[in-house]
Design a protein that fits this description.
Elements lengths: L1 H11 L14 E5 L2 E4 L4 E4 L2 H4 L8 H11 L12 H14 L4 E6 L2 H16 L3 E5 L8 H4 L16 E5 L14 H16 L7 E4 L15 H11 L3 E5 L26 E4 L10 E6 H4 L14 H16 L2 H20 L5 E7 L2 E6 L9 H13 L2 E2 L1 E3 L5 E5 L7 H16 L2
Helix pairs in contact: 3-10, 4-10, 7-8, 11-13, 12-13
Length: about 425
């Protein structure tokens, strides 16, 4: 049955629409932190639909809210007042840390980043964007144009002039040998030098933790130091929180808060986990920036009543059950467990991460060379043993991505770590 579906997939969908596993997997249903495939096999889910199933599969509060809203009205567009959209916007604005915040809902993180770029370039009257090396911001024409990850950049054409800055990857590159303070100073000096060679950019866009790039991050405070340089020149700071928002990193509700010494970003983008699988993205910005557009702009599908009801229920559950605290506690246990296991595996270069956002970087033993074949081996072995994890990595890297739903229990963390240890030993 699955092979027939795979053949149909290949016949009608693009060749570049990648699938995991030699024998691709059809997930038919889920509950809590587990999913089942079409053959009835059960898996512990340590990837959550690419960090999208944030709280739990089939969370009763979300399914109930969706069912009840669907029984009333599913959609009307932004041309009409929409109570669930207003209510969720109020909650998000209050949680954002941005003064006088306005919120615009989209259908994805890609569209959220598109909107942020539109706002920043219009507000600043500049089409120059600063972005981080090894970054990923989506698959649209403009977001590909600011993505600093060759594996996810199918074209060099772009409506923007993009300049790439050092700092998103701590343990590779020309500054890797420096201590944290000197690393930050070197990256800031690079930024200042870069700004001396170009017209004034509109904004810097940065992921506090680079997701697709392999869950890499700079020392805390780097973007605060960048912010001081940017603010002096009127350049905006866009924090791409599509993967880091809503407490997943444990220590903070937003990833930017690890760099908050110089104040909040001018713009924050979000998506993925807030809908727990429903298609929600969005942009938060100061009113003067959000209101800078001088032409009509609506969203047909952004902020539909159905997705907003799901987002409200999901956010309420996350806050009421302190899933940020759970991500900090259980994530801390999981990362230490994985580091202990990895110490016995020569292919593991580094185990890194924050909260329930953990990367296991694999290399050929004794080198810094990526080992994509080892990552594929571990992915397959983990699946065979009942665990789903993801893959990622940027320039010459291969990384296993571990990002379970934030309600993960200690027992499930121990179980998943044991499976992943066995899979790593199978390389």
């Amino acid at each position: 049955m699955t092979r027939d579906l795979y053949a149909r997939h290949r016949a009608v969908l693009p060749d570049w629409l990648a699938l995991y596993y030699e024998d691709p997997l059809e997930i038919t249903h889920g509950e809590g932190r587990h999913v089942w495939d079409a053959e009835g096999n059960k898996y512990l889910d340590f990837f959550g639909g690419i960090l999208t199933t944030m709280t739990a599969h089939a969370l009763p509060e979300v399914t109930k809210a969706v069912a009840e809203q669907a029984g009333r009205i599913i959609h009307s567009s932004t041309l009409y007042l929409n109570r669930p959209m207003v209510e969720l916007a109020e909650r998000v604005a209050q949680l954002s840390g941005i003064p006088d915040a306005r919120v615009f809902f989209t259908t994805s993180g890609t569209e959220a980043n598109d909107t942020a770029l539109l706002l920043a370039t219009a507000h600043r009257r500049s089409n120059t964007i600063l972005a981080m090396r090894n970054s990923y911001h989506g698959r649209s024409f403009s977001s590909v144009g600011i993505t600093g990850n060759r594996g996810w950049s199918p074209t060099s054409l772009s409506p923007l002039q993009t300049l790439y800055v050092h700092g998103g990857v701590r343990t590779r590159g020309p500054y890797a040998h420096l201590d944290d303070r000197d690393f930050i100073d070197a990256c800031v000096a690079d930024l200042v030098d870069l700004l001396g060679h170009t017209r004034a950019p509109a904004a810097l866009i940065a992921e506090p933790v680079q997701g697709v790039g392999g869950f890499t991050s700079p020392p805390d405070g780097l973007y605060a130091a960048f912010r001081e340089v940017l603010h002096e020149r009127g350049i905006l700071w866009i924090a791409d929180e599509v993967q880091t928002g809503w407490g997943r990193t444990g220590e903070h509700f937003w990833g930017w808060q690890a760099h908050g010494r110089s104040g909040p970003p001018d713009i924050v983008t979000f998506a993925k986990g807030i809908g727990n699988g429903m298609s929600i993205g969005g942009v938060i910005a100061r009113a003067e920036i959000m209101n800078c557009l001088d032409a009509n702009s609506i969203s047909t599908f952004g902020g539909t009543q159905l997705t907003m009801a799901a987002g409200l229920a999901n956010l309420n559950h996350l806050l009421e059950h302190d899933l940020q605290g759970n991500a900090r506690r259980v994530g801390g246990l999981l990362i230490e467990r994985l580091r202990a296991a990895a110490a016995q595996v020569p292919h593991v270069r580094e185990v890194r991460g924050r909260g329930l956002m953990i990367g296991v970087e694999l290399t050929r033993p004794g080198t810094d060379e990526a080992a994509p074949e080892a990552a594929s081996t571990v992915l397959e072995a983990a699946r065979a043993d009942g665990l789903l994890v993801g893959k990622g990595g940027g320039h010459s890297t291969s990384v296993l991505r571990v990002a379970p739903p934030m309600s993960l229990t200690v027992a499930e963390a121990e179980e998943g770590a044991a499976i992943l240890e066995r899979a790593l030993r199978s390389i």
